[in-house]
Design brief:
The protein is built from seven helices and five strands; from the N terminus they run E-H-E-H-H-E-H-E-E-H-H-H. Helix 1 crosses helix 5 and helix 6 crosses helix 7. The protein has 190 residues and is α/β, with parallel strands linked by helices. The protein has a five-stranded parallel beta sheet with strand order 2-1-3-4-5, with helices on both faces. The chain folds into two domains: 147 residues, Rossmann fold; 31 residues. Helix content is 51%, strand content 14%.
């Protein structure tokens, strides 16, 4: 499975309006994701504050370029959406989903995220949490994202390819599927 190798990149987003109240929770989420994933993109959240009226057009364009790169590179996103959240968070979730990326949607159990209750996508994993269950809920959600991210692909191979795969899998103590994935990943890096 993809996540067990700790190679995944994740984008974290949350509402600026609630960072005073939920900032410690945001940090807990990011810290836990850092333990589970290769890289966590949360720089945009920290560095770009839309309340600054002195933001130039150039800096907004630069922020959008950086954000687009994060979304392109991430394997999935985690959104903290406890009500009241912001339109920006909803916009980002929609944009991430439109790019085919799974989104974990977290909210406090005492805060109903009404603005996303009707949101349906097979790539959304929504769960509530408490202070005591936050990390456990994140782990469960990552497992769910992993399940919807893995794709099964069946194809026919010649006897020569079968012999090659059998030899490579025995030599490297890997399954034949792992050998095929490794070969494809090596090709993708070229």
């Amino acid at each position: 499975m993809l996540f067990k190798n700790n190679k995944m990149k994740v984008y974290f987003l949350a509402s600026f309006n609630q960072k005073d109240e939920l900032g410690k929770t945001y940090l807990r989420i990011v810290e836990h994701l850092n333990k589970r994933c290769k890289e966590v993109y949360e720089k945009v959240l920290i560095q770009h504050d839309t309340k600054d009226d002195n933001t130039s057009s150039h800096s907004v364009k630069e922020w959008y370029r950086e954000w687009s790169e994060y979304i392109h590179e991430c394997d999935f996103a985690v959104a903290e959406v406890s009500e009241p959240s912001s339109a920006r968070v909803g916009f980002e979730i929609g944009m991430i989903l439109s790019r085919g990326k799974p989104v974990i949607v977290l909210h406090r159990s005492d805060r109903d995220p009404v603005h996303i209750n009707k949101l349906y996508s097979p790539k959304v994993v929504k769960s509530e949490y408490t202070d005591n269950t936050l990390e456990e809920v994140i782990d469960w959600c990552i497992e769910e994202v992993e399940a919807i991210s893995d794709k099964r692909f069946t194809f026919y191979i010649s006897s020569e390819i079968d012999t090659f795969l059998e030899r490579r899998s025995n030599d490297q103590s890997l399954s034949r599927s792992e050998v095929i994935r490794m070969l494809i990943e090596n090709e993708m890096k070229k």
